User: What shape does this take?
Amino acid sequence: MAKRILITGGAGFIGSHLADNLLQHGYEVRALDCLSSQVHGEHARRPDYLDPDVELQVGDVRDPVAVRRALEGVDAVYHFAAKVGVGQSMYQVADYTAVNNEGTAVLLEALIERPVERLIVASSMSIYGEGLYRTPAGELISGAERGLAQLQMHDWELRTSRGDTLTPVPTPETKSPALASVYALGKYDQERMCLLVGRAYKIPTVALRFFNVYGPRQALSNPYTGVLAIFAARYLADQPPVIFEDGLQQRDFVNVRDIAEGCRLALEVTRAADKVFNLGSGEHFTVRAVAERISAALGKEHIEPRIAQQYRVGDIRHCFADITLARRVLGYSPQVAFDEGLGELAEWLQGRTESAQPAADAGTELAARGLTV
Ligand SMILES: NC(=O)c1ccc[n+]([C@@H]2O[C@H](COP(=O)([O-])OP(=O)(O)OC[C@H]3O[C@@H](n4cnc5c(N)ncnc54)[C@H](O)[C@@H]3O)[C@@H](O)[C@H]2O)c1
Assistant: This one.
């Protein structure tokens, strides 16, 4: 008999792609999702992109009754339901803590009553804060930070105490966390809570630290979503994207189809239990290069990005994934080249200018709250 898998947040961007992957591999899929208005719009209905074979239960992960009902007859759980805006988490503190931390606690209490074969929790690169760096002398530095005075002078790179520039290197799972936002704190809490409760109650648990995931279905109406969707929304509205700092900060952009595959492997590979994995592309690009590529993919090369030369509270300079562990243990191997993925994204984006509009306001809102320098 086919195994039934529950995805909390399964009507969202990554959850829906994972559902497609699992259905293709013969699983039955149930989603528990509250269809949050920030992601799905007011009076949201089941999203069109969600495969008709997904059983959608509309409910809140903080509601023990809804969670218990969603767990009935389920063999494994992916816990993706969350509020996902780093900047927004810095002022909607109570809401983020309720959904992300408390929601996880409610799910875990239900799982203690009704254990499953595997629990997989979505964590995030944001828990690292700054990535790993190397000094000119070759020493690895994991706690690097930039001071306010430096940022006010628009000196964006990380430096040694002597002022030498540090070079970013791929960040492995062993880098200690440096939690710089309420969102990151919540993600780390979710990850640790799942692993420790999982261990105590013999529920094999895997935590996956996603890097910058992009692809079709990412909510353009949500101004706190990923940078690629935000840039795309601005281009589609014929407005320049706003790039913080000087645009030379580097990130790891991973296609959502590769993430979905990594998630399935985390379910199927026995040795993955009790471990934490980075899921990224293993490649990195500057934010400015990303803006250029997406503008080209959308035919908007004539719109120059606006380089804000401004620091956003909680932002980091460089972080990209070392995916050696996922390759070795899970057999994870990202397949989607960045330009191919951008082409697909551009195709999906065409004709979505209206839903793109609100994304223009996120930077203004952060500035109004004193969260930029
Ligand atoms: N997209 C990324 O780049 C990225 C990176 C790192 C980690 N993650 C994590 O991956 C997971 C999925 O992210 P996504 O990009 O698909 O986001 P998303 O916003 O598209 O999906 C999240 C889903 O959770 C649902 N949800 C929100 N609050 C809920 C609640 N209280 N009860 C039930 N459902 C609720 C939303 O309606 C939405 O459908 C999240 O846990 C996120 O923190 C995402």
Summary: Residues 8-9, 11-15, 33-36, 39-40, 60-62, 80-84, 99, 103, 122, 124, 210, 212-213, 219, 226 surround nicotinamide-adenine-dinucleotide (CB under 6 Å). The first helix runs from residue 13 to 24. The chain has one domain: 4-367.
